[in-house]
Structures are given as C-alpha cells and as structure tokens.
Amino acid sequence: MRSVKEFHNIPLKGSPLEYVQLPVGKGGLGVACPKNTALLTFLVTIMKKLWSSDSYIRKLYTDYLEEVAKVEIGKFEVNLNDLAEFLSDERAVDSKLFGFNAFTRVREVVRSLCKNKDSPLHSLKIIEREGKLAISVQATEESIEKIFTEDQEKKLMYLLKGELNTALQHRFFTQKVFKSEVMRVVQQHPQSNSFVRNGGKMSFSAQRFVHPGRLNQLPCNYNTWAKGRTKLCRRCAKNENETQSHILQVCDYSIGNIIKERHDAVLYKFRELIKRGSKGHWLERTDRTVPNTGSQLKPDLYLESPDGKHVILADVTVPYERGIEGMQKAWNEKIIKYTDGYKEIFRRQGKSLVVLPLVVGSLGTWWKPTEESLIKLGVEKTTVRRIIPETCGMVAEYSKNCYWRHIYGEKYIQTPMINGGEKPEGNDWKKCKKGIKVPKVTN
Length: 443
Ligand SMILES: [Zn+2]
Hints:
The chain has helices at about 1-5, 15-20, 35-50, 55-75, 80-85, 100-115, 155-175, 180-190, 195-200, 205-215, 245-250, 250-255, 260-275, 325-350, 370-375, 380-410; strands at about 125-130, 130-140, 145-150, 285, 300-305, 310-315, 350-360, 365. The chain has about 450 residues and is an alpha+beta fold. It has 2 domains: about 15-175, no CATH class; about 180-443, no CATH class. The strands form 2 sheets. The protein has a 5-stranded mixed sheet, sandwiched between helices. The radius of gyration is 29 Å and the shape is elongated. Bound molecules: zinc ion. Zinc ion binds near residues 233 and 235.
C-alpha cells in the first residue's frame, strides 16, 4: 500500500487507504488490500468445501467441522446452529483443545473483517438457513443485510468483494468528507478515472499532480499544519487562504493567463467538434456579445439556425470539484445567467433559446450532463465518448501547470502538453473566418 501511494505521489501520512483500495471504476486506484483479499479467499474456499456438490468432500469437511466444534465447545452433540455460531466466533471456545485448524482461521477471518477496530464490514456471520450454512453480510449500519447461500457459490468471492467495497466507500464518504469531495464527482462519470487503468490520455507529470490534487493534499499554504505559518496566498493581494481551489480557480496570479488559457483550450476543442458536427453550418460566434440584443453578456458560443428561429448559447466553465453539489452549482449558474440575460430578448424577436453549459472539472473530471449538451450541439455520441479522456487529460495538464507556476513563479518552465493538444496562440481562432454578416432585426 505504501509503495502504491509513493508511486502515485500521494502523501504517506494522512492519505486515505480507501482511495488506493477502491476499484478504478469507483474512482480509486484499484489496488485491493492484500490482507482483506486473503481473508475473503480463505472464507470462500472453506465455504465451497462445506457446500461442495461432491458428497465425499462435503462429508469430509462437515464431519471435520463437527468434530472440531464438539471438542472446542465442549458438547457431545452439535446441531447446525451450534456450528454456525461456532464459525461466527459467537461461542466461547477453548481453542487449545484441538489446536490451530482451518476453522480457527475462519473465526479469525470473521473477527478481522467485522469485529476488530478498523474492520471494514459492519457485520459478517455464518448462519443457518433452510438446513444449510449460509453467510450473512451487512456492509454498513444503514445498508440491508445480504444473505449468500449455496446457490451463489460460484459468485461468492465477487459478491463479498462488492460488499467490502461498499463498506470502504461508505467509510470514505462519511468520515473523510473533504478528501472524498472530488471522488464523488469522479464516480458520476467513471471515465474520468480511466487513465488509472491504461495510462490513457494523462501524462505522468499530470498523474503525479492529479492524485494528491483529488485528495485535497497538494502542498500549499492552506494545507500545512505547521504552527505560525501563514495560510494566505503567496502570490496575490486578495488576502485569501491559499487553498487548492484558490490556486486553480481565482488567484490573480493565474486568472488572466493560464486559467483563461485552460478555459479557452476546452472551448477551442468543443468548437472544433461542433464545426464538424451536424450543426456545423449554423451561424456561429465565439466569445462575443450577441448583436441586436443590447446585452453585454458574452456567451462562449452563439449558434443560430439558418432560418434564424432557434438560438443556442453554450458556455464553458471549469469549476473546482467541490463535490457533486459544487459542479451542479456551476452548471445552474450558467443556465440562470444566460436565461435571465437573453430569454426575454429572444422571445420578443421570435426566437427559441436553449442554454447549454459545458462543464469540465479542473482536476480532470467529466461532468456527465456535458455529454448531453455536446450532443444537442450536433456532436456525434461516439465522438463525445472518444474525446472525454482527452479533454479531462488536457484540463489536468493545464491545472498542473497552473499549480506549479503558482508555487515556483516565473522560474517554472511549462512542459509541452502531449495529451489533448493545446489551443492555437492568440485569439484569432475566435473570429469568424469569412466575417458572417448578422442580419439587422427590425422591431
Ligand atoms: Zn492568490
């Protein structure tokens, strides 16, 4: 576990183990705890023998279990309920009488998975169900109790692992609220994490930035606990704490350059996709005020259908992942801003208005509704799927540069971006090439 953390540049102290242990699809690093895996494997192999369809094996193990239980509990006859309680470690036993055996180990498994301090599961018991032994698992206090019988024998390992992950995730989300903020966003779209499995579209330097970043553990003034050290930003005069979100979103040192570049890079990428999509022939303006409206708002993308009856306003935003709520807030703000600003004006002009926010999290997470927005902007579904890892990688790359530039100042030399591509220099790409004429509306 330690080396996995080291490899991913996660601080060894104070970083949650759950982040390492949870599967990649759930936002973790997918390295299951070897101890828990060994415990579960042992439990499963023993249960498989007790449930075996081969009567010889079944009898051998059942008789063995009965013998051990009789000796250790100190009874002449034992029934199935006794056996279940014996295996669940609910009976007082004298384990010295028989010596260490397979069933001592089963009791140890039960203890370490649910009874010790820091055990992952809420409860794990062997019970009697319809004349046979079965396993009862309850992942957390709130979750329902699940019972696995002989019928689930083949999938037992998979099912038990699932319960273990549910428990880990629950503990991570409820007890480590700040460190799991970003992971909750990753979970709503697991592709944001696909690079962990295949390296994908994320450079090594960005990966080394993204993992501590997603855990809210990047070294910065606010994240230090040293006494007497300032928590204020080292670069700007805003008198704000130097938090991760300050560095990546609002710091005066970066907002006019790299933060804007990050936004524009996403905008450029989406704009190119839209141009090649089914709405490529719509009248399009980028980052300008909308003519004939008198409004000073500049939507990132203004699309008007050739018949002039439908208008789509799209706006890119790259917020910090303050949980699902933070992302939703960024989304809603865009909708409110442009609906309030334009709806009435376009209604008077007889045009329908659709506002489509395009949201990508600054630590390389994809906000699911953005997919729908792009499809409504005429981009093919398959194309959207393809560009998600690229876009996430690109944003992480910009954020990485933003962070290191903040720490090192002008000494920091930006590394070239290999993944996802950069936007062209300057603002020329925002201009319409042929200078499309906007017709005057007569009121
Ligand atoms: Zn600052």
